[in-house]
Design goal:
29% helix; two-stranded parallel sheet; 209 residues; two-stranded antiparallel ribbon; alpha+beta
Length: 209
């Protein structure tokens, strides 16, 4: 269930920025636009071009050759890609997953020395959802680049009622510990309970297939 503000934001972005041609009606009544969005007929507009918009929104938002990362990796560059599994926006987590699978097929497993893809179970677009949605990917990236520490797991924390971190995520279930932690695992691994220890803590989970 998405909030009214989320739907309005999604509608405005989809209608004005992404569609070809842009649809200004989404600004006049974004909620109505969102609730009446027809995925069978409207989604194709994200891939459409015309004489004015010669490049589709999907093409524009991505690099010209997303499987060619040699200009970066040849210089020692690193990439951490994170995608929320419950992302309700136009960017499906399966798009990122399929891209990474193709990357692995093209470059073999050695590409994991430069690029890693993490899924965040239950998280909505950017944050919230029934998820441990707080994590520090930037520090993981810095330590990978500067110290060679490969990000084999990134610890994510929930923001339930009583969590002292500040803003509370209202979607956290009442039976969760307010500061539940889980490891985010590099694809294709997932977090699995080890069978020992506190199930509310990340250290009780392994990244495994």
């Amino acid at each position: 269930m998405f909030s009214t503000r989320y739907l309005e934001g999604l509608a405005s972005g989809t209608g004005i920025i992404f569609e070809v041609p842009p649809d200004e009606s989404s600004l006049e009544n974004p909620l109505e636009f969102a609730l009446n969005y027809n995925f069978d007929t409207d989604l194709i507009k994200l891939f459409r071009t015309d004489n004015t918009y010669k490049e589709s929104a999907v093409e524009f938002m991505g690099p010209p050759n997303p499987l060619n990362l040699t200009p970066l990796t040849s210089k020692g560059g690193k990439i951490i890609v994170v995608h929320a599994v419950a992302d309700g926006s136009t960017a499906s987590p399966y798009e990122s997953q399929n891209w990474y699978k193709q990357l692995l097929e093209r470059n073999s497993a050695t590409i994991q020395n430069s690029v890693r893809f993490f899924r965040v179970p239950g998280m909505n677009h950017v944050s919230q959802g029934v998820a441990t949605d707080q994590f520090d990917g930037l520090t993981a990236l810095v330590r990978w680049v500067e110290y060679g520490e490969k990000p084999d797991r990134i610890i994510a924390t929930a923001r339930g009622p009583g969590n002292p971190s500040g803003e509370i995520n209202p979607e956290i279930p009442s039976n969760w510990a307010p500061n539940r932690t889980r490891p985010l695992c590099p694809y294709p691994l997932v977090a699995r309970y080890s069978g020992r220890g506190d199930s509310e803590k990340a250290e009780s989970f392994n990244c495994a297939r």
